């Protein structure tokens, strides 16, 4: 394993950011290469915990000569977001300086040639230079996995349409309970930047079957535990074996994927009609019928008219809900995975 440190100049004198990159296997090794990063949203840590268990297994595979492809791992991909603490609250989703989501606005390139991307000397805010740096690190790998989590949620994946169902093996290995298949744009999520050099390939190109690009959502923000992390690491390891990056005869091929795979437009984003205390009546994993009570927003507890009901727009599965309990008008409350297109579906990412 080679460990190196990426350095980014801060936006003001006296500041800089650093993050580690771990590389396994020689650069010229011929098998499928893999890139994994975690904590792009600085407060989403199940992926970090999974890598804690995966990295020793990669080291062992390297030591035993069982790496057929190189592997690059960035355990904390966003030192800016990792360091954003506001009055004791860690806020890692949006850059404090611009309110830009750290997982939007990545450069979308037509090929793996990253020579045109800005370097650290460019007169750009550090968050933009970080995004360029991560794209430089990731492009050129066959398998690109960006490890995130939701607020509270099931384990699920975002997968670009041309890669489905080729990537059903990953969903099987990770025990994902749902796959959201997206088409069109994602407002420049990292996943879209990793996909961008491939989009001109014809749909029937054999290249799709050997590539993987995904945003992995490892449940919710507080689901950081040895048991889930070890299981997630095991799933990632088995996927790398299935794709031929690691050789391990003891690992069985993935079983057929048995979970849901639905178009992104079927997700019912459910919003708060008013501000107040959220009283959820459902949790991730629950199945609901159209019209079922999902939650109440309490504005005047115990008084007539003091609870505002939010009901299911269609039949489906509760995929996620928020971990906070005080909401504001228009705030996201939950994601309901429906069986038909949502009447409020819109292009781009589900959330800001
Ligand atoms: Zn995230």
UniProtKB/TrEMBL annotation:
<keyword id="KW-0479">Metal-binding</keyword>
<dbReference type="GO" id="GO:0016788">
    <property type="term" value="F:hydrolase activity, acting on ester bonds"/>
</dbReference>
<dbReference type="Pfam" id="PF24827">
    <property type="entry name" value="AstE_AspA_cat"/>
</dbReference>
<keyword id="KW-0378">Hydrolase</keyword>
<feature type="domain" description="Succinylglutamate desuccinylase/Aspartoacylase catalytic">
    <location>
        <begin position="30"/>
        <end position="240"/>
    </location>
</feature>
<dbReference type="GO" id="GO:0046872">
    <property type="term" value="F:metal ion binding"/>
</dbReference>
<dbReference type="InterPro" id="IPR055438">
    <property type="entry name" value="AstE_AspA_cat"/>
</dbReference>
<protein>
    <recommendedName>
        <fullName>Succinylglutamate desuccinylase/Aspartoacylase catalytic domain-containing protein</fullName>
    </recommendedName>
</protein>
<keyword id="KW-0862">Zinc</keyword>
<dbReference type="InterPro" id="IPR053138">
    <property type="entry name" value="N-alpha-Ac-DABA_deacetylase"/>
</dbReference>
């Amino acid at each position: 394993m080679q460990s190196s440190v990426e350095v980014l100049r801060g936006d003001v004198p006296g500041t800089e950011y650093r993050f580690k990159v771990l590389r396994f296997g020689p650069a010229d090794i011929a098998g499928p290469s893999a890139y994994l990063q975690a904590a792009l949203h600085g407060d989403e840590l199940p992926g970090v915990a999974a890598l804690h268990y995966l990295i020793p297994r990669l080291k062992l595979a390297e030591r035993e000569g069982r790496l057929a492809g190189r592997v690059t791992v960035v355990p904390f991909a966003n030192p800016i977001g990792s360091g954003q603490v506001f009055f004791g609250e860690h806020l890692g989703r949006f850059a404090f300086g611009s309110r830009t989501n750290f997982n939007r606005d990545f450069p979308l390139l037509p090929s793996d040639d990253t020579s045109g991307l800005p370097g650290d000397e460019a007169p750009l805010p550090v968050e933009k230079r970080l995004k360029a740096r991560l794209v430089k690190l990731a492009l050129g790998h066959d398998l690109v996995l960006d490890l995130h989590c939701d607020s509270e949620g099931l384990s699920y994946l975002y997968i670009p349409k041309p890669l489905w169902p080729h990537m059903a093996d990953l969903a099987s290995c990770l025990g994902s309970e749902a796959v959201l298949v997206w088409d069109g744009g994602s407002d420049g999520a990292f996943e879209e930047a990793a996909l961008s050099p491939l989009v001109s390939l014809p749909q029937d190109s054999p290249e799709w079957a050997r590539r993987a690009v995904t945003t992995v959502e490892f449940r919710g923000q507080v689901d950081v535990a040895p048991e889930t992390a070890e299981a997630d690491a095991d799933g990632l390891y088995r996927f790398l074996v299935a794709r031929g990056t690691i050789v391990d005869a003891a690992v069985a091929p993935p079983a057929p994927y048995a979970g849901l795979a639905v178009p992104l437009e079927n997700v019912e984003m459910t919003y708060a009609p008013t501000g107040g205390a959220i009283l959820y009546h459902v949790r991730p994993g629950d199945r609901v019928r159209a019209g079922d009570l999902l939650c109440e927003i309490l504005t005047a507890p115990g008084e007539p008219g003091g609870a505002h009901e939010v009901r299911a727009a269609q039949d489906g599965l509760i995929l996620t809900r928020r971990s906070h309990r005080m909401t504001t008008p228009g705030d996201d409350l939950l994601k309901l995975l429906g069986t038909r297109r949502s009447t409020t579906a819109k292009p781009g990412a589900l959330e800001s």
